[in-house]
Specification:
Elements: E1 3-8, H1 12-27, E2 31-32, E3 39-44, H2 49-68, E4 73-78, H3 84-93, E5 99-101, H4 109-123, H5 128-134, E6 139-141, E7 162-166, E8 168-169, H6 180-184, E9 188-189, H7 192-204, E10 209-213, E11 221-223, E12 230-232, H8 233-241, E13 248-252, H9 261-269, E14 276-278, H10 286-291, H11 298-311, E15 316-323, H12 330-343, E16 347-352, H13 360-363, H14 370-393, E17 399-407, E18 414-419, E19 424-428, E20 437-445, E21 450-455
Parallel strand pairs: 1-2, 1-3, 3-4, 4-5, 5-6, 7-10, 10-13, 14-15, 15-16, 19-21
Antiparallel strand pairs: 8-9, 11-12, 17-18, 17-20, 18-19, 20-21
Bound molecules: S-adenosyl-L-homocysteine, iron/sulfur cluster (SF4) and FE3-S4 cluster (F3S).
FE3-S4 cluster is lined by residues 10-11, 13-14, 45-47, 79, 179-180, 183-184.
């Protein structure tokens, strides 16, 4: 049977989609490998320009493999395939790609792959000339959007003890810089029963921690199959909190515009819900937020942070920030700096604004010069790092519950794990502890991680 490798760019949604692709291929008898695979699948991301670049760079390398071995198959999928200018470019410059599919038909991929092999067997290997003149891929199917959610697909998980669970797909928010609503379609929530069944199954299989995924989990509205009632995100959290065997619940991402009081309260009431929240602010300036179509102001955001910290003592807060959004003035940028100082985030992802074709902001005329973006970016990162460093320093001396993820990639004898607050902790210990929740006393800290030692209960 043939072997495959998946190369994934992008967010947790894409990582999880890759787990599903892997699960489906495994079910059909394909084996996963990192060494000379027969099939490579590239799962792409459109969020920023460097994700685009990495994709085309990888394709360039694979072309050499393809020339040396015509039996080799290259399949591409993910968010970039939902953009017409990308598929057009692929047709023109990379017609040797074998299978192309989008974000709405992952479930069709194993059949498409087999169809491709059958066509190849029937049509014979294409000559270089045929490939150049074809301007067609062997098999491609991309849909604009679909109402249905396909349930019951297998997933090959990266970890035995923790797992991603999609609760909804798509996004309706149309932030003016963002490509996701165009590549992932409109919001669709899964039925709560389907989510609960999946998590029950995972827990029975030894999974201790689930991360509920959605571009904006706070707008989850799942219709119950039992009585037709609509569940919101907090209803789902309360129900999951009751599941036996499950120990931790996380979620990503929560849009600041609609974080409900009930959800904030749930942190105190649901012991499995981890004390951690990712709340992308994007900018500290209300005027920039307005141009971004984020639907909240600086003041509203800060008020929610205050409420969260008051109701959930010790909660860790992380964020995403975009630097150099079109028209961002020095004063507006300084408002982002002051917000960052005021909130003092546990961690942050900072991005240079990258114009995405097809989004409103890409058309704005007041684009910020690259050097200004970079200069602002560096100033912001310094402040963010100071914040993370001081938040981490407060952990020294504390005993934390840590879910052990695995051995450290660099240092032998060292294990890595995560606290409830999603802090990365390194400590000495035997590999048998992987997948267990243990007590670790924090002995030192730095900007991105903590160091500790195992202590007994
Ligand atoms: N749904 C999530 C974000 C998903 S995209 C939310 O709304 O919070 C992850 C992050 O990428 C965003 O939070 C944003 O900070 C960044 N991002 C999105 N589009 C971008 C662009 N065009 N340029 C730079 N960063 C961008
Ligand atoms: Fe993009 Fe905004 Fe939707 Fe997040 S909420 S995915 S940033 S459009
Ligand atoms: Fe990228 Fe698509 Fe995720 S654009 S960030 S992989 S939803």
């Amino acid at each position: 049977m043939k072997s495959y490798q998946i190369i994934t760019f992008g967010c947790q949604m894409n990582e999880h989609d890759s787990e599903v692709i892997s699960g489906m291929l495994t079910q059909r008898g394909y084996t996963e490998t990192e060494q000379n695979p027969d099939i490579v699948i590239i799962n792409t991301c459109s969020i920023r320009e460097n994700a685009d670049k990495r994709f085309f760079g990888t394709l360039g390398q694979l072309k050499k493999v393809k020339i040396a071995n015509p039996d080799f198959a290259v399949c591409v999928c993910g968010c970039m395939m939902q953009q017409e200018h990308i598929t057009k470019k692929l047709r023109q410059s990379y017609p040797w790609v074998d299978v192309v599919f989008g974000t709405h038909n992952i479930h069709e991929f194993p059949d498409m792959l087999e169809e491709m092999f059958e066509r190849r067997a029937a049509e014979g290997e294409w000559t270089v000339k045929q490939v150049r003149s074809s301007k067609e891929f062997r098999v491609d199917r991309i849909y604009e959007d679909r109402d249905e959610i396909v349930e019951g697909l297998p997933a090959k998980r990266l970890f035995g003890h923790k797992s991603f669970v999609n609760i909804m797909y798509g996004c309706n928010n149309f932030c003016t810089y963002c490509i996701v609503p165009y590549t992932r379609g409109r919001e669709k929530s899964r039925h709560p029963e389907d989510i609960l069944d999946e998590v029950r199954g995972l827990a029975a299989d030894g999974v201790k921690e689930v991360t509920l995924l959605g571009q904006n989990v706070n707008s989850y509205r799942g219709k119950s199959k039992a009585d037709g009632k609509t569940w919101d995100f907090t209803d789902l959290i309360y129900a999951l909190n009751e599941l036996e065997g499950l120990e931790r619940i996380r979620f990503m991402t929560s849009h600041p515009k609609d974080l409900s009081d009930r959800l904030i309260e749930a942190f105190g009431k649901c012991e499995k819900l981890c004390n951690y929240i990712h709340r992308p602010v994007q900018s500290g300036s209300s005027s920039v937020l307005k141009r971004m179509n984020r639907k909240y102001t600086r003041e509203q955001y800060l008020e929610l942070v205050r409420k969260l910290r008051e109701t959930v003592p010790g909660i860790a807060i992380s964020t995403d920030i975009i630097v150099g959004f079109p028209g961002e003035t020095e004063e507006e940028f300084e408002e982002t700096l002051s917000l960052a100082k005021e909130v003092c985030y546990d961690s942050a992802f900072t991005f240079l604004y990258s114009p995405r074709q097809g989004t409103p902001a890409a058309e704005y005329e007041d684009q910020i010069p690259e050097e200004v973006k970079h200069e602002r970016f560096n100033r912001l990162v310094d402040i963010m790092n100071e914040g993370s460093k001081s938040r981490n320093a407060a952990y020294v001396g504390r005993v934390c519950r840590v879910l052990v993820d695995g051995p450290d990639k660099k240092e032998s004898g060292i294990l890595n794990g995560r606290t409830e607050e999603f802090k990365l902790v390194d400590f000495e210990g035997p590999e048998e502890l992987v997948g267990q929740i243990i007590n670790v006393k924090i002995t030192s800290s730095n900007t991105f991680s903590l160091r500790g030692e195992i202590v007994n209960d």
